[in-house]
UniProtKB/TrEMBL annotation:
<keyword id="KW-0460">Magnesium</keyword>
<dbReference type="InterPro" id="IPR051600">
    <property type="entry name" value="Beta-PGM-like"/>
</dbReference>
<dbReference type="InterPro" id="IPR006439">
    <property type="entry name" value="HAD-SF_hydro_IA"/>
</dbReference>
<comment type="similarity">
    <text>Belongs to the HAD-like hydrolase superfamily. CbbY/CbbZ/Gph/YieH family.</text>
</comment>
<keyword id="KW-0479">Metal-binding</keyword>
<protein>
    <submittedName>
        <fullName>HAD family phosphatase</fullName>
    </submittedName>
</protein>
<dbReference type="GO" id="GO:0046872">
    <property type="term" value="F:metal ion binding"/>
</dbReference>
<dbReference type="InterPro" id="IPR023198">
    <property type="entry name" value="PGP-like_dom2"/>
</dbReference>
<dbReference type="InterPro" id="IPR036412">
    <property type="entry name" value="HAD-like_sf"/>
</dbReference>
<dbReference type="Pfam" id="PF13419">
    <property type="entry name" value="HAD_2"/>
</dbReference>
<dbReference type="GO" id="GO:0003824">
    <property type="term" value="F:catalytic activity"/>
</dbReference>
<dbReference type="InterPro" id="IPR041492">
    <property type="entry name" value="HAD_2"/>
</dbReference>
<dbReference type="InterPro" id="IPR023214">
    <property type="entry name" value="HAD_sf"/>
</dbReference>
């Protein structure tokens, strides 16, 4: 077995924008005359798609959430997100992202992104950070019905890469996922992928027990050593659920 693809999460791995999302969601709830997010709801939102989170928020407040209504809310949020991003002098891209992308490319590995974020938000940030050209596949929350911790997004990324590069003959276990939340880690593991947990959102010790590798910062990740593990014939040990 060999490592062929590195799949990045988006929010919490590439960009530090959690506070922006939470603020915009609260603003929409106010506009809809609904109760603001509770602390427990905010915590539960991490790693999940906006659609799934809005659906839960509305259900908790007794509001009927049709697909049309959800789509309308997501469009409003995406527009507001673009306005907030445009106000920033510099995008809050996490340290080490560009260097890791360089390392991955220098080893002739494919690069993908799997996120529950809205596609327009991902596109806006990647273009603004001049990173879009490096991603061979992007799976957003618009592409899947089941949000993380379901594995659907990761499995779709494998499918699309095989469609684009048939000679790759990619299997999920030949992918490395980079995640920052329990929901994302579980999604990648359920897709039969190994996972790097980066402690951007949750503490190191919480991620360490359920990831194959854990780092405080992306700059700490030694990709060469990770590749060596993939090249070993022995079956990798399982790790517990977060």
């Amino acid at each position: 077995m060999s490592l062929k693809v590195v799949l990045f999460d988006f929010n919490g791995v590439i960009i530090k924008d959690e506070s922006i999302h939470l603020q915009l969601i609260d603003e929409i709830l106010i506009e809809e005359n609904l109760q603001l997010q509770k602390v427990s709801e905010r915590q539960a939102s991490l790693g999940r798609s906006d659609r799934a989170y809005f659906q839960e928020l509305l259900a908790n407040r007794g509001r009927v959430a049709t697909e049309e209504y959800l789509t309308q809310l997501l469009k409003r949020k995406a527009q507001a997100y673009a306005q907030e991003i445009e106000k920033l002098e510099k995008l809050p891209i996490y340290s080490g992202v560009e260097d890791l992308i360089y390392q991955v490319r220098s080893r002739n590995l494919k690069i993908g992104l799997v996120s529950g974020a809205i596609g327009k938000e991902i596109e806006l940030v990647l273009n603004g950070a001049k990173l879009a050209e490096y991603f061979q596949v992007i799976v957003s929350g618009d592409d899947i019905t089941n949000s993380k911790p379901k594995p659907d997004g990761y499995l779709l990324a494998v499918e699309r890469l095989n469609q684009e590069y048939p000679q790759l003959n990619l299997q999920p276990q030949e992918c490395l996922a980079i995640e920052d939340t329990p929901a994302g880690i579980q999604a990648a593991k359920r897709a039969n992928m190994q996972v790097v947990g980066v402690a951007n959102t949750y503490p190191f010790h919480m991620l360490q027990r359920c990831c194959n590798w854990t780092v405080d910062y992306l700059t700490d990740l030694e990709l060469e050593r990770v590749q060596e593990v993939y090249s070993q014939k022995e079956v990798q040990p399982t790790v517990s659920e977060c």
